[in-house]
Amino acid sequence: MTANDNWYIEHFEPTGSAIGFRITGKLDEVQSPFQKIEIYDSTDWGKLMVIDGAMMLTTKDNFFYHEMISHPVLFTHPNPKRVVIIGGGDCGTLREVLKHPGVEKATQCDIDEQVTRMSEKYFPELCERNGDPRAELLFDDGVAYMANCEPGSVDVVIVDSTDPVGPAEGLFNKAFFESCFRALKDDGLLVQQSESPLALLELIKDMRAEMGKAGFRSFKTLPFPQPCYPTGWWSVTLASKRDGFGFGFRQADAAAKPFETLYYTAHLHAGLEVAPPFVARALGE
Amino acid sequence: MTANDNWYIEHFEPTGSAIGFRITGKLDEVQSPFQKIEIYDSTDWGKLMVIDGAMMLTTKDNFFYHEMISHPVLFTHPNPKRVVIIGGGDCGTLREVLKHPGVEKATQCDIDEQVTRMSEKYFPELCERNGDPRAELLFDDGVAYMANCEPGSVDVVIVDSTDPVGPAEGLFNKAFFESCFRALKDDGLLVQQSESPLALLELIKDMRAEMGKAGFRSFKTLPFPQPCYPTGWWSVTLASKRDGFGFGFRQADAAAKPFETLYYTAHLHAGLEVAPPFVARALGE
């Protein structure tokens, strides 16, 4: 480290590990009614968005997360037409979802409009589908939105939230998952970001337990690299209403997908059908 | 971060990113003729080994690397009996290699005996196969060892080295790869740790180019999570003497392997047969 270098380091208490990036300066900062949003520029990672001191995304590496929270669940559902994204204010998940031509409507409901405004300004590539006629952007309470959804009206719910503290705390409990369960059709699927599968397996177990109390019967956790999150390895957890659902996916459709990805492939998805042994053991699979 | 916390942070210039761990203290330190080896204890990651300021391994996460540098190449070779490990002084790779019952002899040649002595003391689980009658531990120059190997005598060469600076610099060039090429049988395979596939793709291209100058004809880079290395995502690169070698592996043998792993599975390996699109594009595949 040279004397002129400037590093943004996030010390993450729950994993006892830290992640950081060499930055060139702070570009912007806003205190919304819900949280503090900061934008930094970096030497190697493009722009960084930090919310309440937690790294949310970088220009360089956000594609891992946005692809993996979108494409596996959409290729697992037989025919997803109606998608709801809770959180996801940076709009990167919405962009991936709308790459699927079969999706007829995708509603993104984030409580904090400022996240989207900052993303439009500093991560415009993530917002390039915001004008799609199938997109609906709401700035409202995701818990209330799901509670008020018409029962059996949604194919896929994507919970693209911050960590389970602060504004997102209400997105990790039985009451919220009950709303998701009710809103989903019988073959509907829920997917939620589920933190580090190396260091935070207890959190994944707790989340699955809460989903189970709400009626979900089958679960699948998919790991993927995410350099800007603690441990560099992250996960999403899928949930189905059906007993013994195997989470097999439309492999031929995925292999012939009519859009580009940087990380996701049908091959990769197939390789995730069996969990790493230490993850399977910890989750009792 | 509370005032009482103590963090070991590694700022890695080439990727502009940093990785760190919450430590409880330094347990040991030795300056060998080649490098400085430090051992720390941590709150969540067990013990850490740091060489010349670079994080080498932690108790908690070293299994990713040791499994992925060993099992994919050994299940890709049709019948590996004679294995040479260059570097690998912590003995974790040797342990994985010797899990394969078909391996008749595995020679580990690390220039620095102190790495092995420190590993025996602080990572004894990695050294549990050192007494296997098939194991040979040498403390010598790996470049010279490969140069003096009997031509066509080796099935698999594993280059388990530090970064391409300092003592390991000579393990990343044409002259060394020519020795490996000569020592390997016609169906022999070389595998080498090849740094971050997210941030250091140029290094992987350069390494493949040097291997190519030495006569290797086909290459395959496999990514895997490695939280304690820069970007948290790492890779190994396999090389074959054969034109158009596809790196298909003995999937049935891998699925029926007579030993435990924490991360590697035949399913995972199959999922890696197609590279992530952005990696494939950068490597011209």
UniProtKB/TrEMBL annotation, chains A, B:
Catalytic activity entry: S-adenosyl 3-(methylsulfanyl)propylamine + putrescine = S-methyl-5'-thioadenosine + spermidine + H(+)
Listed GO CC annotations: cytosol
Residue intervals of the PABS domain: 5-241
Presence of keyword Manganese: no
GO process annotations (BP): spermidine biosynthetic process
UniProt keyword terms in alphabetical order: Polyamine biosynthesis, Spermidine biosynthesis, Transferase
Record-given protein name: Polyamine aminopropyltransferase
Pathway: Amine and polyamine biosynthesis; spermidine biosynthesis; spermidine from putrescine: step 1/1
Binding-site positions, S-methyl-5'-thioadenosine: 35, 110, 141-142, 167
Domain of life: Bacteria
Species in which this protein is naturally found: Pseudoxanthomonas helianthi
EC number(s) per entry: 2.5.1.16
One Pfam family matching this protein: Spermine_synt_N
HAMAP family: Spermidine_synth (MF_00198)
InterPro entries cross-referenced by the UniProt entry: PABS, PABS_CS, SAM-dependent_MTases_sf, Spermi_synthase, Spermidine_synt_N, Spermidine_synt_N_sf
The keyword Transferase is assigned to this record: yes
